[in-house]
Amino acid sequence: MKICPKCKGNVADGLNVCTHCGAVITPQAAKPKKKDSTEVKRDNQAIAITSVIITLVGIFIMFEVSALVGMIIYLIAFALSFNELRKDPEFRPETIVPFAKKCLSKENFKGMGLMFLVVAILPLMAVIGSYRWIVTDTYREVESMYNDYY
Ligand SMILES: [Zn+2]
């Protein structure tokens, strides 16, 4: 059933003319159209590329400036990608293997694949980050001890 815009009477779905008042009923205004898959893909790609750039900046800062700041920058990229991947219905612990395969397949790689990688390197980044943190701190300590001594 649809509702006649003029007399608010019920009209059978198949009819284009109101059976009560004779008004012509145009097919219902299209509902807000869902993004088509190419559009979603393009959004994915933009987010993926942004995440990769942020990750690279994070790694650079981790090594050159501060391990902690670099890690925080990487976590921004992580959150961005994670939030986007989470929207996929297959993004669940029990379907993570087929989900990974789907992401890393050739047609999805530039978008979901890159986002997947940004998320998946979290443990690696944590290890590198802690290592850099310890090394930098230890180095500074040793250096200051050296300076105190001489
Ligand atoms: Zn009507």
TrEMBL record:
The protein's name: Zinc ribbon domain-containing protein
Organism phylogeny: Bacteria, Bacillati, Bacillota, Clostridia, Lachnospirales
Transmembrane regions listed in the UniProt entry: 46-77, 114-134
Superkingdom in the source lineage: Bacteria
Organism from which the protein derives: Lachnospira intestinalis
Record keywords, A-Z: Membrane, Transmembrane, Transmembrane helix
